[in-house]
TrEMBL record:
<dbReference type="InterPro" id="IPR027417">
    <property type="entry name" value="P-loop_NTPase"/>
</dbReference>
<dbReference type="InterPro" id="IPR003593">
    <property type="entry name" value="AAA+_ATPase"/>
</dbReference>
<dbReference type="GO" id="GO:0005524">
    <property type="term" value="F:ATP binding"/>
</dbReference>
<protein>
    <submittedName>
        <fullName>Sugar ABC transporter ATP-binding protein</fullName>
    </submittedName>
</protein>
<keyword id="KW-0067">ATP-binding</keyword>
<keyword id="KW-0547">Nucleotide-binding</keyword>
<dbReference type="GO" id="GO:0016887">
    <property type="term" value="F:ATP hydrolysis activity"/>
</dbReference>
<feature type="domain" description="ABC transporter">
    <location>
        <begin position="6"/>
        <end position="246"/>
    </location>
</feature>
<dbReference type="InterPro" id="IPR050107">
    <property type="entry name" value="ABC_carbohydrate_import_ATPase"/>
</dbReference>
<dbReference type="Pfam" id="PF00005">
    <property type="entry name" value="ABC_tran"/>
</dbReference>
<dbReference type="InterPro" id="IPR003439">
    <property type="entry name" value="ABC_transporter-like_ATP-bd"/>
</dbReference>
Length: 268
């Protein structure tokens, strides 16, 4: 079997006294969706930042195509085919869909001083690429801000695919969306997978993760509390793991609150 596209093993990271990640191991293969689930403070953002080259890890190993790497910037990650689609999507709402698609990487025509942005090519490529992902935008001249959240997420995914990503990391792509729009995005995740990409889907929602995931990793307070292939984990197991986490967090918070209240001097 060929080397996984991306593999981290026993990755740890601390911020001062806070252990944000403790020995986290995740493997991503071509044509697979790996879901990383966790509630607030589980370490999801830290995990994304390390994979995308924004943060360094303290210990463990990070391999891309089997080769150990120490990424120094998001550019470095992109050059190795690791693209991260953040919640804010890095799009300009007032600009047309096609302009956003090519933001910062415009196709040019001609050479030397005659080199110029090839608008027609950009529009055509945008239309074709979106269609290939099953996204039927009526008009690529439409400002991105007029599209639905699900459509915007899908365009960001299509853009990453077009620009050569082998692995896409999706940062809570469905969390701000209603059920229908979330369904739209989950559909594009399946399409990216069908095109042979490795997908890391970060979410706190087991109902969004389960239908599209091949593998599930659950983080709680920086630690892996579950790591299983779909055949070894039912939807109920995953939901239970996540709701258990939320309950525990809430309980800890409540205990802190009660503890603080009982420390206060009693008024007479
Ligand atoms: N720059 C930082 N300095 C200190 N502590 C940090 C920093 N970034 C994150 N942490 C802590 O590390 C832990 C993990 O945080 P992280 O943001 O990765 O979790 P998360 O799963 O993304 O949570 P959320 O869903 O709330 O964003 C938390 O306890 C957080 O307070």
């Amino acid at each position: 079997m060929s080397a996984p596209l991306l593999e981290v093993s026993k990755l740890s990271k601390r911020y001062g006294q806070v252990i944000a990640l403790r020995e986290v191991s995740v493997t991503v293969r071509a044509g697979e969706v790996t879901c990383v689930l966790g509630d607030n403070g589980a370490g999801k953002s830290t995990f994304i930042k390390i994979l995308s080259g924004l943060h360094q890890y303290d210990s463990g190993e990070y391999r891309i195509d089997g080769e150990p790497v120490r990424l120094t910037s998001p550019r470095d990650a992109l050059d190795r085919g690791i693209a991260t689609v953040y919640q804010d999507l890095a799009m300009v709402p007032l600009m047309a869909v096609w302009r956003n698609f090519f933001l910062g990487a415009e196709p040019t025509r001609g050479i030397g001083p005659l080199r110029r942005f090839d608008i027609e090519a950009a529009k055509r490529i945008t239309r074709d690429e979106l269609l290939a992902m099953g996204i039927d935008i009526r008009d690529v001249e439409q400002p991105v801000g007029t599209l639905s959240g699900g459509e915007r997420q899908s365009i960001a995914i299509a853009r990453a695919v077009y620009f050569g990503a082998k692995v896409i990391i999706l940062d809570e792509p469905t969390s701000a969306l209603g059920v229908r729009q979330a369904g739209v995005v989950l559909n594009y995740i399946m399409r990216a997978r069908a095109r042979g990409l490795g997908v890391i889907f970060i979410t706190h929602n087991p109902h969004h993760a389960y239908p599209v995931g091949d593998h599930f990793v659950v983080l709680r307070r920086g630690q892996m509390i579950a790591d299983a292939a779909k055949k070894d984990m039912s939807r109920d197991d995953l939901t239970r793991l996540m709701s258990g986490g939320a309950e525990l967090e809430e309980l800890a918070h409540e205990l802190d609150r009660v503890g603080t209240a009982s420390d206060r001097p009693q008024s007479t």
